[in-house]
Amino acid sequence: MTYRITLLPGDGIGPEITAVARAVLEHVAALEGFRIEFATCAFGGASIDEFGEPLTEATLKTCQASDAIFLGAVGGPKWDRADARPEAGLLALRKALGVYANLRPAAVHPALAGKSPLRPDLVAGTDVLIVRELTGGIYFGTRERSADSASDKCTYSRGEIERVARIAFEQARLRRGKLTSVDKANVLETSRLWRDVVTEMGARDFPDIELDHMYVDAAAMHMLRAPASFDVIVTENMFGDILSDEASMLPGSIGLLGSASLGENKPGLFEPIHGSAPDIAGQDKANPFGAIEAVAQLLESLGETAAAGRIRDAINTMHEAGEWTGDLGGSLSCSQAGVKLVERLEAEAVAAE
Ligand SMILES: NC(=O)C1=CN([C@@H]2O[C@H](COP(=O)(O)OP(=O)(O)OC[C@H]3O[C@@H](n4cnc5c(N)ncnc54)[C@H](O)[C@@H]3O)[C@@H](O)[C@H]2O)C=CC1
Ligand SMILES: CC(C)CC(=O)C(=O)O
Ligand SMILES: [Mg+2]
User: Fold this and answer.
1) What is the tens place of the pLDDT at every residue in 244-262?
2) Pairing between strand 258-262 and 268-272?
3) Where does the chain bind Mg(2+) (predicted)?
4) E strand or H helix at 271
Protein backbone atom coordinates (compact mmCIF):
# COMPACT_ATOMS: atom_id res chain seq x y z
CA MET A 1 0.00 0.00 0.00
CA THR A 2 1.28 3.47 -0.90
CA TYR A 3 -0.15 6.65 0.64
CA ARG A 4 0.31 10.14 -0.74
CA ILE A 5 0.92 12.56 2.11
CA THR A 6 1.30 16.30 1.60
CA LEU A 7 3.51 18.14 4.07
CA LEU A 8 2.88 21.85 4.67
CA PRO A 9 5.70 22.88 7.03
CA GLY A 10 4.64 26.55 7.11
CA ASP A 11 6.40 29.13 9.26
CA GLY A 12 8.27 29.59 12.54
CA ILE A 13 8.62 26.24 14.33
CA GLY A 14 6.45 24.62 11.63
CA PRO A 15 9.40 23.27 9.60
CA GLU A 16 11.17 22.02 12.76
CA ILE A 17 8.24 19.91 13.97
CA THR A 18 7.34 18.82 10.43
CA ALA A 19 10.83 17.33 10.03
CA VAL A 20 10.19 15.23 13.13
CA ALA A 21 6.69 14.27 11.93
CA ARG A 22 8.13 13.10 8.60
CA ALA A 23 10.85 11.01 10.26
CA VAL A 24 8.25 9.35 12.48
CA LEU A 25 5.99 8.62 9.49
CA GLU A 26 8.91 7.10 7.57
CA HIS A 27 9.85 4.85 10.48
CA VAL A 28 6.38 3.51 11.24
CA ALA A 29 5.78 2.94 7.52
CA ALA A 30 8.92 0.78 7.41
CA LEU A 31 7.86 -1.09 10.55
CA GLU A 32 4.30 -1.72 9.31
CA GLY A 33 5.27 -2.38 5.69
CA PHE A 34 3.47 0.41 3.84
CA ARG A 35 4.94 3.12 1.63
CA ILE A 36 4.53 6.88 1.68
CA GLU A 37 5.04 9.30 -1.20
CA PHE A 38 5.60 12.75 0.25
CA ALA A 39 4.89 16.07 -1.47
CA THR A 40 6.09 19.21 0.32
CA CYS A 41 4.50 22.58 -0.50
CA ALA A 42 5.16 26.13 0.65
CA PHE A 43 2.23 27.36 2.72
CA GLY A 44 1.35 30.41 4.82
CA GLY A 45 4.05 33.05 5.15
CA ALA A 46 6.55 30.88 3.26
CA SER A 47 4.13 30.81 0.32
CA ILE A 48 3.53 34.57 0.51
CA ASP A 49 7.29 35.08 0.28
CA GLU A 50 7.62 32.73 -2.69
CA PHE A 51 4.36 33.21 -4.60
CA GLY A 52 2.68 36.31 -3.13
CA GLU A 53 -0.24 34.35 -1.62
CA PRO A 54 -0.57 32.00 1.39
CA LEU A 55 -2.34 29.17 -0.47
CA THR A 56 -1.71 28.75 -4.19
CA GLU A 57 -4.00 26.86 -6.54
CA ALA A 58 -1.17 24.37 -7.16
CA THR A 59 -0.73 23.67 -3.43
CA LEU A 60 -4.47 23.21 -2.97
CA LYS A 61 -4.55 20.76 -5.90
CA THR A 62 -1.65 18.78 -4.42
CA CYS A 63 -3.44 18.68 -1.07
CA GLN A 64 -6.74 17.57 -2.63
CA ALA A 65 -5.00 14.77 -4.54
CA SER A 66 -3.40 13.32 -1.40
CA ASP A 67 -4.60 10.78 1.15
CA ALA A 68 -3.79 13.02 4.11
CA ILE A 69 -2.18 16.38 4.83
CA PHE A 70 0.18 17.26 7.65
CA LEU A 71 0.52 20.94 8.55
CA GLY A 72 3.17 22.43 10.87
CA ALA A 73 1.97 25.97 11.66
CA VAL A 74 1.67 29.33 9.93
CA GLY A 75 2.05 32.99 10.78
CA GLY A 76 4.49 35.35 12.34
CA PRO A 77 5.23 39.03 12.89
CA LYS A 78 6.79 39.37 9.43
CA TRP A 79 3.34 39.03 7.82
CA ASP A 80 1.13 40.58 10.51
CA ARG A 81 0.64 43.78 8.51
CA ALA A 82 0.64 42.15 5.08
CA ASP A 83 -2.41 42.35 2.81
CA ALA A 84 -2.34 38.57 2.42
CA ARG A 85 -2.02 36.93 5.85
CA PRO A 86 -0.74 33.37 6.42
CA GLU A 87 -3.74 32.63 8.65
CA ALA A 88 -6.11 33.45 5.76
CA GLY A 89 -4.44 30.64 3.80
CA LEU A 90 -5.13 28.21 6.64
CA LEU A 91 -8.79 29.20 6.84
CA ALA A 92 -9.10 28.91 3.04
CA LEU A 93 -7.51 25.44 3.09
CA ARG A 94 -9.84 24.18 5.84
CA LYS A 95 -12.85 25.56 3.90
CA ALA A 96 -11.71 24.15 0.55
CA LEU A 97 -11.16 20.69 2.08
CA GLY A 98 -14.51 20.84 3.88
CA VAL A 99 -12.93 19.71 7.15
CA TYR A 100 -15.68 20.97 9.43
CA ALA A 101 -14.87 18.88 12.53
CA ASN A 102 -11.64 19.50 14.42
CA LEU A 103 -10.90 16.83 17.04
CA ARG A 104 -8.54 18.03 19.76
CA PRO A 105 -7.86 15.45 22.50
CA ALA A 106 -6.19 16.49 25.76
CA ALA A 107 -5.30 13.66 28.13
CA VAL A 108 -3.03 13.79 31.17
CA HIS A 109 -0.56 10.92 31.30
CA PRO A 110 0.18 10.19 35.01
CA ALA A 111 3.83 11.18 34.45
CA LEU A 112 2.65 14.64 33.34
CA ALA A 113 0.39 15.38 36.33
CA GLY A 114 3.13 17.42 38.00
CA LYS A 115 3.77 19.43 34.82
CA SER A 116 0.46 21.28 34.79
CA PRO A 117 0.22 24.71 36.42
CA LEU A 118 -2.83 23.19 38.17
CA ARG A 119 -2.55 20.87 41.21
CA PRO A 120 -1.64 17.27 40.25
CA ASP A 121 -4.68 15.88 42.10
CA LEU A 122 -6.92 18.19 40.06
CA VAL A 123 -5.65 17.20 36.61
CA ALA A 124 -5.19 13.49 37.39
CA GLY A 125 -7.41 11.33 35.20
CA THR A 126 -8.25 14.12 32.74
CA ASP A 127 -9.13 12.83 29.28
CA VAL A 128 -11.18 15.32 27.29
CA LEU A 129 -11.91 15.53 23.58
CA ILE A 130 -12.82 18.95 22.22
CA VAL A 131 -14.77 18.78 18.96
CA ARG A 132 -14.44 22.23 17.44
CA GLU A 133 -16.55 23.36 14.49
CA LEU A 134 -13.93 24.44 11.97
CA THR A 135 -15.38 25.90 8.78
CA GLY A 136 -18.11 28.26 9.99
CA GLY A 137 -18.86 30.93 12.56
CA ILE A 138 -17.15 34.23 13.16
CA TYR A 139 -13.83 33.23 11.57
CA PHE A 140 -15.62 32.94 8.22
CA GLY A 141 -18.14 35.78 8.46
CA THR A 142 -17.95 39.01 6.47
CA ARG A 143 -15.61 41.53 8.01
CA GLU A 144 -15.95 45.29 7.71
CA ARG A 145 -13.66 48.03 8.76
CA SER A 146 -13.85 51.81 8.58
CA ALA A 147 -11.60 54.28 10.35
CA ASP A 148 -13.45 54.05 13.67
CA SER A 149 -15.55 50.92 13.58
CA ALA A 150 -15.22 47.28 12.64
CA SER A 151 -17.45 44.23 12.49
CA ASP A 152 -17.15 40.44 12.13
CA LYS A 153 -20.33 38.56 11.36
CA CYS A 154 -21.05 35.21 13.03
CA THR A 155 -23.43 32.89 11.17
CA TYR A 156 -24.35 29.24 11.69
CA SER A 157 -26.85 27.19 9.75
CA ARG A 158 -28.75 24.20 11.12
CA GLY A 159 -26.82 21.91 8.72
CA GLU A 160 -23.44 23.19 9.88
CA ILE A 161 -24.36 22.54 13.50
CA GLU A 162 -25.92 19.14 12.84
CA ARG A 163 -22.94 17.65 11.04
CA VAL A 164 -20.38 18.57 13.72
CA ALA A 165 -22.76 17.66 16.55
CA ARG A 166 -23.26 14.22 15.01
CA ILE A 167 -19.50 13.60 15.03
CA ALA A 168 -19.30 14.73 18.65
CA PHE A 169 -22.17 12.45 19.73
CA GLU A 170 -20.56 9.52 17.87
CA GLN A 171 -17.21 10.22 19.59
CA ALA A 172 -18.97 10.30 22.96
CA ARG A 173 -20.49 6.91 22.18
CA LEU A 174 -16.97 5.54 21.55
CA ARG A 175 -15.72 7.03 24.82
CA ARG A 176 -17.50 7.54 28.17
CA GLY A 177 -20.93 8.50 26.82
CA LYS A 178 -20.98 12.13 27.94
CA LEU A 179 -21.25 15.24 25.74
CA THR A 180 -21.05 18.85 26.89
CA SER A 181 -22.22 21.40 24.34
CA VAL A 182 -20.64 24.80 24.94
CA ASP A 183 -22.27 28.02 23.73
CA LYS A 184 -23.26 31.52 24.80
CA ALA A 185 -27.00 31.03 24.41
CA ASN A 186 -27.76 33.62 27.10
CA VAL A 187 -26.55 36.28 24.63
CA LEU A 188 -26.01 35.04 21.06
CA GLU A 189 -28.70 34.04 18.56
CA THR A 190 -26.27 31.64 16.84
CA SER A 191 -25.79 29.94 20.21
CA ARG A 192 -29.55 29.62 20.74
CA LEU A 193 -29.83 27.82 17.39
CA TRP A 194 -26.78 25.72 18.33
CA ARG A 195 -28.39 24.66 21.62
CA ASP A 196 -31.74 23.82 19.98
CA VAL A 197 -30.13 21.73 17.25
CA VAL A 198 -27.86 19.80 19.63
CA THR A 199 -30.74 19.18 22.07
CA GLU A 200 -33.02 17.90 19.28
CA MET A 201 -30.33 15.61 17.87
CA GLY A 202 -29.52 14.22 21.30
CA ALA A 203 -33.16 13.37 22.08
CA ARG A 204 -33.81 11.94 18.61
CA ASP A 205 -30.64 10.03 17.72
CA PHE A 206 -28.48 9.71 20.84
CA PRO A 207 -30.74 9.10 23.87
CA ASP A 208 -27.95 6.92 25.33
CA ILE A 209 -25.58 9.91 25.53
CA GLU A 210 -25.65 12.09 28.63
CA LEU A 211 -25.92 15.60 27.18
CA ASP A 212 -25.46 18.83 29.07
CA HIS A 213 -25.03 22.47 28.04
CA MET A 214 -22.68 25.07 29.42
CA TYR A 215 -22.06 28.73 28.71
CA VAL A 216 -18.55 29.23 27.43
CA ASP A 217 -17.45 31.45 30.32
CA ALA A 218 -18.53 28.83 32.86
CA ALA A 219 -16.95 26.07 30.74
CA ALA A 220 -13.62 27.91 30.86
CA MET A 221 -13.92 27.98 34.65
CA HIS A 222 -15.02 24.34 35.04
CA MET A 223 -12.13 23.26 32.79
CA LEU A 224 -9.79 24.48 35.55
CA ARG A 225 -12.00 23.52 38.52
CA ALA A 226 -12.81 19.93 37.49
CA PRO A 227 -11.13 19.01 34.18
CA ALA A 228 -11.60 15.27 34.71
CA SER A 229 -15.38 15.75 34.75
CA PHE A 230 -15.42 16.37 30.96
CA ASP A 231 -15.60 13.66 28.32
CA VAL A 232 -16.46 15.20 24.91
CA ILE A 233 -17.04 18.92 24.38
CA VAL A 234 -18.64 20.23 21.19
CA THR A 235 -18.53 23.90 20.43
CA GLU A 236 -18.31 26.55 17.73
CA ASN A 237 -15.15 27.59 15.95
CA MET A 238 -13.88 30.45 18.10
CA PHE A 239 -14.89 28.99 21.48
CA GLY A 240 -13.18 25.71 20.54
CA ASP A 241 -10.03 27.53 19.49
CA ILE A 242 -9.80 29.27 22.85
CA LEU A 243 -10.88 26.37 25.08
CA SER A 244 -8.40 23.99 23.45
CA ASP A 245 -5.43 26.27 24.15
CA GLU A 246 -6.68 26.41 27.75
CA ALA A 247 -7.02 22.60 27.83
CA SER A 248 -3.39 22.22 26.75
CA MET A 249 -2.35 23.42 30.21
CA LEU A 250 -3.96 20.33 31.79
CA PRO A 251 -1.13 18.06 30.57
CA GLY A 252 1.20 21.04 30.88
CA SER A 253 2.21 22.33 27.43
CA ILE A 254 0.56 23.55 24.27
CA GLY A 255 3.30 21.61 22.48
CA LEU A 256 1.62 18.31 23.44
CA LEU A 257 -1.73 18.50 21.67
CA GLY A 258 -2.45 17.28 18.16
CA SER A 259 -5.60 17.68 16.11
CA ALA A 260 -7.47 15.98 13.30
CA SER A 261 -9.62 18.06 10.96
CA LEU A 262 -12.14 15.84 9.21
CA GLY A 263 -14.97 16.22 6.71
CA GLU A 264 -17.12 13.88 4.66
CA ASN A 265 -14.27 12.94 2.35
CA LYS A 266 -10.54 12.44 2.42
CA PRO A 267 -8.06 13.99 2.78
CA GLY A 268 -8.11 15.01 6.41
CA LEU A 269 -5.82 17.75 7.69
CA PHE A 270 -3.61 16.98 10.69
CA GLU A 271 -1.75 19.53 12.76
CA PRO A 272 -0.64 20.34 16.29
CA ILE A 273 -2.97 22.87 17.94
CA HIS A 274 -0.26 25.43 18.56
CA GLY A 275 0.93 28.20 16.26
CA SER A 276 4.28 29.07 14.75
CA ALA A 277 5.78 30.16 18.11
CA PRO A 278 7.97 32.98 16.71
CA ASP A 279 9.58 33.43 20.15
CA ILE A 280 11.34 30.06 19.91
CA ALA A 281 11.50 29.56 16.14
CA GLY A 282 14.85 28.54 14.66
CA GLN A 283 16.20 27.45 18.06
CA ASP A 284 15.37 23.74 17.92
CA LYS A 285 13.42 24.12 21.18
CA ALA A 286 9.87 23.26 20.12
CA ASN A 287 8.06 20.32 21.66
CA PRO A 288 7.28 17.98 18.73
CA PHE A 289 4.87 15.69 20.65
CA GLY A 290 1.73 17.54 19.47
CA ALA A 291 2.91 17.14 15.88
CA ILE A 292 3.63 13.46 16.56
CA GLU A 293 0.18 12.97 18.10
CA ALA A 294 -1.24 14.56 14.92
CA VAL A 295 0.72 11.97 12.92
CA ALA A 296 -0.95 9.21 14.98
CA GLN A 297 -4.35 10.75 14.20
CA LEU A 298 -3.39 10.93 10.50
CA LEU A 299 -2.50 7.25 10.46
CA GLU A 300 -5.78 6.37 12.18
CA SER A 301 -7.65 8.22 9.41
CA LEU A 302 -5.88 5.97 6.90
CA GLY A 303 -6.86 2.86 8.85
CA GLU A 304 -3.26 2.30 9.99
CA THR A 305 -4.25 1.83 13.62
CA ALA A 306 -1.30 -0.43 14.48
CA ALA A 307 1.12 2.28 13.31
CA ALA A 308 -0.78 4.89 15.35
CA GLY A 309 -0.62 2.57 18.37
CA ARG A 310 3.14 2.20 18.03
CA ILE A 311 3.51 5.99 18.07
CA ARG A 312 1.30 6.46 21.12
CA ASP A 313 3.19 3.69 22.97
CA ALA A 314 6.50 5.39 22.18
CA ILE A 315 5.20 8.78 23.37
CA ASN A 316 3.99 7.18 26.62
CA THR A 317 7.33 5.46 27.14
CA MET A 318 9.07 8.81 26.77
CA HIS A 319 6.70 10.42 29.29
CA GLU A 320 7.40 7.60 31.73
CA ALA A 321 11.17 8.10 31.28
CA GLY A 322 10.84 11.90 31.66
CA GLU A 323 12.29 12.45 28.21
CA TRP A 324 10.97 15.93 27.46
CA THR A 325 11.75 19.21 25.77
CA GLY A 326 12.36 22.40 27.75
CA ASP A 327 8.70 23.47 27.97
CA LEU A 328 8.15 20.45 30.26
CA GLY A 329 11.40 20.93 32.16
CA GLY A 330 13.34 18.40 30.07
CA SER A 331 16.68 18.81 28.34
CA LEU A 332 15.93 17.48 24.85
CA SER A 333 15.91 19.70 21.79
CA CYS A 334 13.11 19.30 19.25
CA SER A 335 15.29 17.22 16.92
CA GLN A 336 16.67 15.12 19.81
CA ALA A 337 13.12 14.37 20.98
CA GLY A 338 12.35 13.19 17.43
CA VAL A 339 15.44 10.96 17.34
CA LYS A 340 14.58 9.54 20.79
CA LEU A 341 11.05 8.75 19.70
CA VAL A 342 12.29 6.91 16.63
CA GLU A 343 14.73 4.97 18.85
CA ARG A 344 11.81 4.07 21.12
CA LEU A 345 9.80 2.90 18.10
CA GLU A 346 12.69 0.67 17.02
CA ALA A 347 13.29 -0.66 20.54
CA GLU A 348 9.62 -1.50 21.06
CA ALA A 349 9.49 -3.23 17.65
CA VAL A 350 12.52 -5.36 18.55
CA ALA A 351 11.06 -6.17 21.98
CA ALA A 352 7.83 -7.31 20.35
CA GLU A 353 9.59 -9.72 17.97
N1 LIG B 1 -2.54 26.41 13.20
C2 LIG B 1 -1.74 27.46 13.06
O3 LIG B 1 -0.97 27.52 12.13
C4 LIG B 1 -1.78 28.53 14.07
C5 LIG B 1 -1.10 29.68 13.82
N6 LIG B 1 -1.03 30.66 14.78
C7 LIG B 1 -0.18 31.80 14.46
O8 LIG B 1 1.08 31.57 15.12
C9 LIG B 1 1.68 32.84 15.43
C10 LIG B 1 2.07 32.88 16.90
O11 LIG B 1 0.88 32.86 17.69
P12 LIG B 1 0.86 32.76 19.27
O13 LIG B 1 -0.34 33.41 19.75
O14 LIG B 1 2.19 33.18 19.82
O15 LIG B 1 0.62 31.18 19.56
P16 LIG B 1 1.65 29.97 19.58
O17 LIG B 1 0.83 28.77 19.81
O18 LIG B 1 2.49 30.00 18.36
O19 LIG B 1 2.59 30.24 20.84
C20 LIG B 1 2.08 30.50 22.13
C21 LIG B 1 3.17 30.18 23.17
O22 LIG B 1 3.31 28.75 23.23
C23 LIG B 1 4.65 28.38 22.94
N24 LIG B 1 4.62 27.19 22.08
C25 LIG B 1 3.83 26.97 21.01
N26 LIG B 1 4.09 25.81 20.46
C27 LIG B 1 5.06 25.24 21.18
C28 LIG B 1 5.76 24.00 21.10
N29 LIG B 1 5.52 23.09 20.15
N30 LIG B 1 6.72 23.75 22.02
C31 LIG B 1 6.98 24.62 22.99
N32 LIG B 1 6.36 25.82 23.12
C33 LIG B 1 5.40 26.11 22.22
C34 LIG B 1 5.25 29.57 22.19
O35 LIG B 1 6.66 29.59 22.34
C36 LIG B 1 4.53 30.74 22.82
O37 LIG B 1 5.19 31.13 24.00
C38 LIG B 1 0.64 33.90 15.03
O39 LIG B 1 1.00 34.41 13.77
C40 LIG B 1 -0.65 33.11 14.97
O41 LIG B 1 -1.60 33.70 14.11
C42 LIG B 1 -1.61 30.51 16.01
C43 LIG B 1 -2.30 29.36 16.29
C44 LIG B 1 -2.47 28.30 15.34
C1 LIG C 1 -5.81 30.87 12.11
C2 LIG C 1 -6.28 30.41 13.47
C3 LIG C 1 -7.72 30.14 13.49
C4 LIG C 1 -5.49 29.24 13.88
C5 LIG C 1 -5.72 28.75 15.27
O6 LIG C 1 -5.56 29.43 16.24
C7 LIG C 1 -6.09 27.37 15.44
O8 LIG C 1 -6.54 26.71 14.51
O9 LIG C 1 -5.99 26.88 16.57
MG1 LIG D 1 -5.69 28.28 18.08
Assistant:
1) 999 999 999 999 999 999 9
2) antiparallel
3) 217, 241, 245
4) strand 268-272
Cα separation, 18 vs 31, whole angstroms: 20
Burial class (CB in 10 A: 0-12, 13-18, 19+), 92: middle
Write down the catalytic residue from 49, 208, 212, 217: 217
- pLDDT of 350 > 90? The answer is no
User: Which ligand 2 atom sits nearest the alpha carbon of residue 241?
Assistant: 9
The pLDDT-based confidence of 307 (bands split at 50, 70, 90) is very high
Q: What is the pLDDT of residue 155?
A: 98
Residue 276 CB–ligand 1 contact under 6 Å: yes
| Partner residues linked to 329 by β-bridges | none
What is the greatest pairwise CA distance in the chain? Answer: 68
Query: Among 302, 244, 304, 232, which Cα is nearest to 274's?
Result: 244
- Confirm or reject: Cβ of 179 under 6 Å from ligand 1: no
Q: Is 282 assigned to a binding site?
A: yes
Cα 154–chain centre separation: 22
The finding on whether 241 has its CB within 6 A of some atom of ligand 2 is yes
Q: At what angle do helices 216-225 and 237-247 cross, to 10 degrees?
A: 10
Give, as residue ranges, everything with CB less than 5 Å from ion ligand 3. Answer: 241
pLDDT more than 90, % of the chain? 97
pLDDT band at 230, cuts 50/70/90? very high
Residue 352 has pLDDT above 90, yes or no: no
**Going by CA atoms, what residue is nearest to atom 1 of ligand 2?**
87
Q: Residue 320 corresponds to which amino acid?
A: E
Mean of pLDDT over the chain: 97
- Is residue 254 within 6 Å of ligand 2 at its C-beta? no
CA of 204 to the centre of ligand 3 (A): 33
CA of 22 to the centre of ligand 1 (A): 20
Pick the catalytic residue from 67, 183, 231, 241. 241
